[in-house]
Specification:
alpha/beta, 152 residues
């Protein structure tokens, strides 16, 4: 299981996700460019005291990310407010890559279409979306629960 962040805009969200990923031993891929400087030092600062323990790989673009990770059993699972599968109905697999779009624009149409599964987190009527880090935590928690991949 992996988390992939496509061109994230907000360093604080990335830091929160890196902290979560470190605690659950989940690798994170950051697909550039970011809406903020994304050096190792800045990512570690955003993740506070857990930054050095996060397994983070930066990729120049989606093509480089796909070359590195979309092979074998890997499935691309897009978390999107327009997903056709509710989180509670999704069936996760151990090699899934949870793909999150940018906070300001979501995923571009070509990546949305490329996903093997498009998942949405149910919300009350009238709300557009959750915070990126919150949505990542909810979806990752469910994926780890289903696949029995929680550490410890």
């Amino acid at each position: 299981m992996r988390i992939a962040l496509h061109q994230p805009d907000i360093a604080g969200n990335v830091g929160t996700i890196l902290r979560l990923a470190a605690c659950w031993r989940i690798p994170v891929d950051i697909i550039l460019p970011c809406g903020f400087p994304a050096s190792d030092r800045q990512l570690q600062r955003a993740a506070m005291d857990y930054g050095g323990q996060a397994d983070v790989t930066r990729h120049a673009d989606f093509v480089a990310f796909a070359r590195a990770h979309l092979l074998g059993e890997a499935r691309l699972v897009a978390l999107t407010s327009s997903g056709d599968t509710r989180l509670t109905d999704a069936r996760f697999q151990p090699h899934d890559i949870l793909l999150m779009g940018r906070e300001s624009a979501g995923l571009p149409p070509d990546l949305h279409a490329r996903a093997d599964l498009r998942v949405r987190i149910p919300m009350a009527a009238g709300f557009r979306s959750l915070n990126l880090a919150v949505a990542t935590g909810i979806a990752l928690g469910e994926a780890l629960r289903q696949t029995d991949l929680f550490p410890g």
